[in-house]
What does this fold into?
Amino acid sequence: MQEKIKFYKYQGAGNDFILIDNRTGFFDGNNIDLIHRLCDRRFGIGADGLMLLQDKKNFDFEMLYYNADGREGSMCGNGGRCIVAFARDLGIIAHKADFLAVDGTHRATIADNQVNLGMVDVHEIHRDGDAYVLNTGSPHYVKMVEDLRHYPVYNEGYAIRNNETYQEKGINVNFVEKENDGYFVRTFERGVENETLACGTGATAAAIAMALQENRTGALEVPIRVLGGQLSISFTQEGDHFRNVFLKGPADLVFEGKF
It folds into this structure.
């Protein structure tokens, strides 16, 4: 008889994830086929990605993130917020977390369902035509468009992600439109290879790119609306350097089960 594995499903602004408490090391993160199958929305649990919470010396925990295609991914901002909520729900942390992810150390605070996650500093931003290219833990392409509600995000995002420049390593493609005092953002994510309801590192990249676009400096807080809800990005801009970068938004348990 096969052993059953306990899992938890969380979502952060519509970005949904399978979370597994792997502090005993029982789950094999190298099993690409299994992870891909679990993330499949028709034949599995369904998710944008899967995360393992593991023990790590000198940290509250370690976050291992896998894309829906089963392969280990780069940093996922909304996933990071969800795993902080998961750690709180497991009793590992109370209100603060210091954890290790693929892009380094992260610190976060949590109050109710709101998680404020520290992201990496950003020091390099390039241009690709009228778009911005930067890394906020994952690589992002940010472009302003009009009428984003009806914009062909999948077709345009797929084309950019698979063009000669980005095809080999892939890139997340974000389309941005000014909205009140913030921005509306839609994202085509590599690894998922489709549009998702939210992308935390993408929202962060969009906020930073728009600060450059509008020549805003100093300590800033930028509201970002995504299809799955509302996020807030804060940072301090000093020239081309962006420090104290934080991604804030909701993270909620959806259900738990065994497979």
